[in-house]
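User: Good morning. I'm curious how 1-deoxynojirimycin would be positioned relative to this chain. Could you predict the structure with it bound?
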Amino acid sequence: MFKKNFVWGAATASYQIEGGAYEADKGRNVWDVASATQGRIFEGHRGDVGCDHYHRFKEDVRLMKELGLKAYRFSVNWARLLPEGTGKVSEDGKRFYLELLRELKNAGIEPWMTLFHWDYPYALYQKGGWLNAESPKWFEAYAGVCAELFSPYVSHFILINEPQCFVGLGLSSGEHAPFLKLPDAEVMRAAHHVLLGCGLAEKKIRKICGSSVKIGTAQAYWPALPLTEQDVELAREETFACHKNFGSVNYYTDPLLLGHYPEDALAWQRECGFTFPESDMDIIGSKLDFYGLNTYSGDCVTRENGKTVYPQPAPTVPRTDMRWTVRPEALYYGPKFIWERYHLPIVYTENGVALTEWKDLDGKINDDSRIDFLRRYLRALSRAADEMEIDGYFYWSLIDNFEWAEGFSKKFGLIHVDYETGERTPKKSAGFYRHVIETNGEDL
Ligand code: NOJ
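Assistant: Good morning! Here's the predicted structure, ligand included:
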């Protein structure tokens, strides 16, 4: 069962929905440059206009209200607010976010503001981005500006979204902007700067806002799942093993919440020759109020002949349009492992499904599989909520949007967007989600 004041929301991110890439004095970010230079994004799609939320935000807030959302998670486009990444604040950027916040307030929807959801200012990238030793201070200053300007409206700040992706995919495997394939030691340095930035930003926001806001992060979390009941401990171990890549949650949140990197990550760092002053950990160690998780699936693990194996999913296991398996139990075992390791209230800052779908001849989007997905995942989450503190759930995404290197080809929204006309059409699942919210998830 979900608690009485459970936070039911939906999420988006700035670059994925805003458009307005060349409005006023907005600065460029690494995704603007990826859109403009091409070659990396599906069929040459660009985020310049996209859902045009920058111009249509009032309509979008009205749709959120119709959906019955209690909270809305969105992100600030750093270079819209600070065109150079640091220093001068853009009046237009400030106006845009304040107007959005006022609109949400009038609609009775709680704003959860993500500070960094991957659209890194290009001006700072040209100075080395997260590799620059000054980068933690740039982030701290930006967080300070957001706290000063927006905290009268914002209830929750999410410092960063999915370091596993913007570090792992952006700087190590080269799949996301800025498409770098740096040596591991350099990626470790960038990740370390991200963590220092979070530590500084958390302290800065607390200094400005005191206890009036809650602070967390949103982690990309793809837990290992037990194939059989005997595999629970193995699944936990595997979930928290770094396997020499930047995809695990604990590579980032052990330093933030427990004050040290995981043992296997430290060994990997030593092997790569990456070192840092021990005193950094005092800056990184943070007091976060909640643990934000973004989960879409998980991989089943077991032991065969004494070896850890991840068996291929059977062909009957359903897959989404991202080719991700449908694994509702990820929303039971996933939070369980996090709760037992960190003892922080958990919020699902993202969960959802991309489907191949279109507007039918009758003008409706009959996305029954999304409803089924929601039922299955929320049932698992409800089971988890009986055993641990789960405070909220944000469906990804409010509206169809720009899915990074996949362009507009993947549709996660509760609301369909016609990218030619900008027209919004709530899908069948929007009605279902409204019912879930109205009944506090008691009719799944
Ligand atoms: C993770 C990211 O935070 C979001 O930007 C992305 O669109 C969704 N998951 C779906 O891949």
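The mean pLDDT is 98. The radius of gyration is 21 Å.
Let me know if you'd like a different ligand tried.
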